[in-house]
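Consider this today:
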Amino acid sequence: MRRRAVVVSLEVLVVVALAGCGGGKPEPVEDILAASPELSALVFENEYVRVVEFALGPGDELPLHHGAKRVIYALSDYTIEWLEGDAPPATKEWTRGEVHFHDAMTHSARNTGSTEARYLVVSRKPTPLPIIEAYDVEADAAESDADHSKAVFENDQVKVIEVRIAPGEKQPAHHGLNRVIYALSDYTITYTSDRTGTEESVVKTGEAHWHESDEHAVENTGETEAHYLIFAWKN
């Protein structure tokens, strides 16, 4: 009986080993939202961009998946291990408010810290952006209204601007690229655009919306600070 048990155990080990060898590198997941619904949430999506918020508890891991070119904004302090392409794993520590950019690449992520990893991923889709007419790059929110706006990241693909407007204050007319707005607070504003006219918007923390390139002004007509991010895509 003892000898037979050893033989059976060896057979099981051989089967497991062969299965592992045949599998090779795991196939990347096409849709990370479907693969990890408990760790990700779709915030906004149209034909140009996709905005997803991730929340990984300590030890949580996202499987290998495809990622378009994208901007990552840290919503909390966290430590995470990234694996991209054929590069060795890299451990990164991010602080809330930090921004970084990744080109399109297959990757995975694992929270190796002791705190929840919350971050926003704004991905660019392949659809060409709407044509920009008469846009003045020197007159965007960060350049023309330093009292309320500052650039927190910029490369040849995208510019990320943080905006804070106190109740009763306003931004003068300025230009804006095709862009996603992500709310970091609850607020009410009046938005006046040469493209869409004037409208009042009530926005909640964590919401996102899209604006095509235009000239516009913003006034905080509510009772709370309007705190939001602009992800302005250049191409």
In short: The domain at 137-233 is CATH 2.60.120.10 (Jelly Rolls). Residues 2-23 form the longest helix (22 residues). The mean pLDDT is 89. The helical segments are 2-23, 32-35, 141-144.
